[in-house]
Specification:
six-stranded parallel sheet; 237 residues; Rossmann fold; 8 strands; 2 domains; alpha/beta; two-stranded antiparallel ribbon
């Protein structure tokens, strides 16, 4: 089963959806923890903390998910160290998931008028740098990060902004119902739901367990599944 009509806008999460960045994020968190004399955390634990932005990732790594244990100055120091380290090491081990570029090219070929964008909770500068490095930027008219707006996903503000911008580019109104959010966690599913858009959940990403409790409209076990879900014939595209 696939979506009944061609979407006008497809918005992708970044980490766990287009790229596997878990090793570089985990290494950067553990470098920050070591700098502040904290014990390292296992990679699977840190990977489970990814998805709600850099600040929340650092808070969780410090054992402070609600922000009520450490003072803000301390959290800011750790966050700054983490971001500085990650800025240098963000491409050490990060890679584009197999099938992502093929699938984006197939979508572009089949539906040249369908716009695509990135909406991630990762800070916008590393997001754009990573997409540029891997040749992903050419597919997207916009790339917004967790610090692009006053709120982060699952608040729908970023997605609704992209819908408005896409409508301006297209010269006609694109509705949330004509929009699909593709991501690997409940954060992306809720973002779509809060905006009135449709969702595809990626089970190959960093938080597949969260898609069980917050199920998307469709599940993709690999990036090439996006094409099947969208009803795009890979051979003809």
């Amino acid at each position: 089963m696939h979506f009944p009509t061609q979407p006008r806008l497809i918005v992708f999460d970044l980490d766990g959806t287009l790229i596997d960045s878990s090793v570089d994020l985990c290494n950067s968190i553990n470098a920050a923890l070591a700098h502040f004399n904290k014990p390292p955390l296992p990679e699977p634990v840190i990977a489970g903390y990814i998805g709600d932005g850099a600040s929340m990732l650092v808070r969780r790594a410090l054992g402070d998910p609600e922000g009520d244990v450490h003072d803000e100055e301390y959290v800011t120091e750790v966050l700054t160290y983490f971001l500085d380290y990650y800025r240098i090491h963000k491409l050490d081990f990060t890679y584009v998931y197999p099938g992502v570029i093929l699938s984006l090219e197939a979508i572009r070929a089949a539906w040249p008028d369908t716009l695509m964008a990135v909406l991630t909770n990762k800070p916008v500068n590393p997001s754009r740098d990573i997409c540029a490095h891997f040749g992903l930027s050419r597919f997207f008219f916009q790339n917004y990060g967790g610090n692009s707006f006053h709120t982060k996903k699952p608040d729908p503000h970023g997605l609704l902004t992209l819908i408005a911008e896409a409508s301006a580019i297209a010269g006609q109104t694109i509705t949330p119902a004509q929009t699909i959010m593709v991501g690997d966690s409940h954060v992306d599913v809720l973002t779509a739901r809060n905006a009135g858009a449709q969702s595809i959940g990626c089970t190959f990403g960093l938080a597949p367990q969260s898609l069980i409790t917050t199920p998307p409209d469709h599940l993709a076990n690999a990036p090439t599944d996006w094409l099947t879900i969208l009803g795009i014939n890979q051979r003809s595209s």
